[in-house]
Amino acid sequence: MMSTAPSFSLNATAKGSNGAPIIATGNPAMSGSWNRKDRPCDSCRRRKSRCIIPENMEICIMCHSRGEECTFVQTPQRRKRRRVDGEDGTKARSPDAEKSLPGKPPIDDYTALPGSLLKQTLGLQNRQHGQYLGQTTEYDTRLINLSPFNGRGEYVSTPGTLRRVNNQTHFIMKSESQEEVDDELANLDIVESVIRPHGKALVKLYFRIIHPSFPIMDKKVFLEKYERTYREFTPPLLAAVYILALNWWSYTPELVNLPKPDAAKLEKLVPKFMSDVLNRPKLSTVQAGLLLLQRPDGDSWALTGQLVAAAQNLGMHLNCSRWKIPEWERSLRKKLAWALFMQDKWGALIHGRPPLIHHDDWAVMPLEERDFSDNVEDEEEEEGSSEIENGRLIFLHMISLTEILSDILKTFFTLRATGFLEAEEEKAFLVTLERAKPIQLRLKEWHAKLPSCLAVGHMKARKLSSTGSLNLAYFAAEVTLHRAIIRFDSFSIDDQLRAITRSAARMRFTNAIDLVNKLEPSHLQSFWYFASKTNLAIIGTFGSLLWATSDSIEESEFYRSQLAEYRWTLRVSSKGAEFMKFTVGMLDASAVFVKDNASKMGTPTMVREPVVGEVSSNKGTPQTWTPKFEFDNSTQPQSLQGANEVSPSIGTSTDNAYPYDTDFSHVGMTLAPDVRPPWGNEFDDFEIGEAQDWSMDQMYEFSPLQDMLGNRRMPKEYDESGDVFAGF
């Protein structure tokens, strides 16, 4: 059906839908009243959009916004008559069937759409996108404000339409070319064809399971657009919603017995779709990217960087609280910004990269309860859904935990911070403790204030729970803080202080394992944040590090036993949570399980500096302890399951599946010559392979700190209420 439009005659007056007169100019041969048979201007007819000419204007709104000439020259196309039963032996389509056909035109201008939430939207306009004008560009705020903005805060200029959201913040709105529009519509039809006719069911699945704990979309706005046509979205966002929802295909009775669409087809399409929209971003671009990054194997540091750049183009790093945009969009911008903040910080952690978002250029206000439009009344009663209220709390507490993680990374793992601590030499351990204590207290407070409903043990019958992801992230943050401390671990440190720090580290590790043991199917089958896969591996690495720096064979065996239990729990749990297999493979290839993997024998030798007054049985020889393990050399090396699985940090395995000193002669393999640089003189007594699993920080010698320990008050107290060492 053709859109409703006025007829046009030279200086003729017609009545609009609100009864107001509309002045129109055009072809003098055309005249008449406002009725359905008359056509719009040439440009609006090509776009199949509604053509409206406001009072006192001679061109329509769409041509005015695009800076195009408004003409009425081309002859209207003849309407196609609908077939009736019996013609050409075919059956006429029902109106419902026609709704699902590709080609239904989307809305071009939300301003003229009665009752739409999208009126006055800035970041979700159809067929145009906005770009934030920064302070150092060729545009200056004071000069821009001299422009004659209309009541909507818009002014049509040569490069595009300027839009003012407050006196200090401006955007330039640029229209998309017809070629871009046509390509986007074609891509949307391709996406829909892959999953048709299950689109609505998948959208419902998405909002039932994923959206509650990852609320980066306004549900009402999304459903309003989807009810009209799927063609109002961008291809990557529509594909991302479908791809994630397909993971819970069996959680809908109407779908479980039907053939499941091939998600791999959509997976192959989304890289190009994202590439198409990143140069003309909208809020939907960031939404799509964040959703794609939550896929089990979808994490990408490069895409994270592109999303941060796109978000800055959209002004998402600014305080939008007083902008002249709809209230729902202000809330959406805040939620999206904080979701991107989390993606950046946790991505920096698991990839070992510098964060891309910095505090000096971050003015986003904290989220409030009013920023979440969903409430308990909107919760789906169908079993297998996620709880809306718990999901909101998970999202909020994940943000506050991420702010603490950001400070951990900034305090201990930037190049400047690392260089400073290394320069402290023998004081590095004490300086690290001083810097870590306030952050540790913040983590303790965060955990103490966690609502009881977010505890892993709190579950609602027949509901999925994402609390496991939140609690795992907490232990990953704890472990990261303690890794910063024990990297300067040395026997030269005061025995009592070293015992306190190692006991605290041991408690974090065992508590993390206990968390994983408590996970139930309702946790494993729920939505997990993207970093969960590597957070599990980080905990395993921490346990391996404690094993490698053990003081005795008893301590070494304790950590080996705990890691074996951890590996077993993950192995059996991975049947219901595929992302856990990554850590299982990492532990299988770890030097901790050398007996199982026929790998190198023993652990790194910790050299202890002689304490003043201590008598050594061998004068001049440092006291050492080297664990000895018995091996059955008659067995051949076992297959290292998962050893070559891709590591998020560098894109290749971080573990060496074939250790240096293993004999490969029986399998016909020859080792290449060892071209590694020689160790320093302090390692002359090491046997081959003894030190290769040490981190570089552990290679440093630490001088005795006896003189300094007497002048410092060392934290010793044990905090029973929090079940942790308050000062390590």
Automatic annotation (TrEMBL):
Cellular component annotations (GO), alphabetically ordered: nucleus
Keywords of this entry: Metal-binding, Nucleus
Domain of life: Eukaryota
Keyword Aminoacyl-tRNA synthetase appears in the UniProt entry: no
BP GO annotations: DNA-templated transcription; nitrogen catabolite activation of transcription from RNA polymerase II promoter
Residue span of region Disordered: 74-106
Residues covered by the Zn(2)-C6 fungal-type domain: 40-72
Name of one Pfam family that matches: Fungal_trans
Family annotation (InterPro entries): Carb_Metab_Trans_Reg, XnlR_reg_dom, Zn2-C6_fun-type_DNA-bd_sf, Zn2Cys6_DnaBD
MF (Gene Ontology): DNA binding; DNA-binding transcription factor activity, RNA polymerase II-specific; zinc ion binding
Protein name: Fungal-specific transcription factor domain-containing protein
Biased composition (Basic and acidic residues): 84-101
PANTHER family associated with the record: GLUCOSE TRANSPORT TRANSCRIPTION REGULATOR RGT1-RELATED-RELATED (PTHR31668), TRANSCRIPTIONAL ACTIVATOR PROTEIN DAL81 (PTHR31668:SF4)
